[in-house]
Design goal:
heterodimer; A: mainly beta; six-stranded mixed sheet; three-stranded antiparallel sheet; about 45% strand; B: seven-stranded mixed sheet; 11 strands
């Protein structure tokens, strides 16, 4: 089965840029989506199709995808960005949907 | 506005059954595929199942295949998850989510608020 690997945690100072990686075999050939989940809340889509943002999501959130790594970047980080972030793809070989292991972003 | 509201969670003994519901509103339910995703306490997200917009196809995670059944009633704008032979490891918050984007590689948006299922004797 397809596996997506994320770092367990990322720490960043306010105003700096947080980068969250999502590793998978040839992930660059897939469409990657990213979700933000704050404690006690449902996940919220922040980036879809590698780099597109839903309406209402700040431009500070951006994504890229190439080779074996997809990346979610959060620029000018704010305290309100503290959350867990998950990447997700569709595995066409199994018709299964796969989530990454999740990354906790801490704003110092 | 688009809204998904899950219900049916609770405490159930191992080996018993439970049916979850997800009421959809604010969009044309019968034109979207729908998912169930779960999250065990303190753990990450785990995809459970998907059903096509017309119910013609269903796919399941290996961990629930043969025990869980996803279904929908389009005239009632409702998604279901029938869970049989429940195990302790099925304890989780269960979310329903709409598959947006129009293809299998699409994303989950929006999500419901979730309903907690606890499997315990």
């Amino acid at each position: 089965s397809y596996v997506l690997t994320q770092p367990p945690s990322v720490s960043v100072a306010p105003g700096q840029t947080a980068r969250i990686t999502c590793g998978g075999n040839n992930i660059g050939s897939k469409s990657v989506h990213w979700y933000q989940q704050k404690p006690g809340q449902a996940p919220v889509l922040v980036v879809y199709d590698d780099s597109d943002r839903p309406s209402g999501i700040p431009e500070r959130f951006s994504g890229s995808n190439s080779g074996n790594t997809a990346t979610l970047s959060i620029s000018r980080v704010e305290a309100g960005d503290e959350a867990d972030y998950y990447c997700q793809v569709w595995d066409s070989s199994s018709d299964h949907y796969v989530f990454g292991t999740g990354t906790k972003v801490t704003v110092l | 506005q688009v809204q998904l509201v899950e219900s049916g969670g609770g405490v159930v003994q191992p080996g018993r059954s439970l049916r979850l519901s997800c009421a959809a509103s604010g969009f044309t339910f019968h034109t979207y595929a729908m998912h169930w995703v779960r999250q065990a306490p303190g753990k990450g997200l785990e995809w459970v199942a998907v059903i096509w917009f017309d119910g013609s196809n269903e796919y399941y995670a290996d961990s629930v295949k043969g025990r869980f059944t996803i279904s929908r009633h389009n005239s009632k704008n409702t998604l279901y998850l029938q869970m049989n032979s429940l195990r302790a490891e099925d304890t989780a918050v269960y979310y329903c989510a709409r598959m947006s984007g129009g293809s299998s590689m699409s994303w989950f948006d929006p999500w419901g608020q979730g309903t907690l299922v606890t499997v315990s004797s």
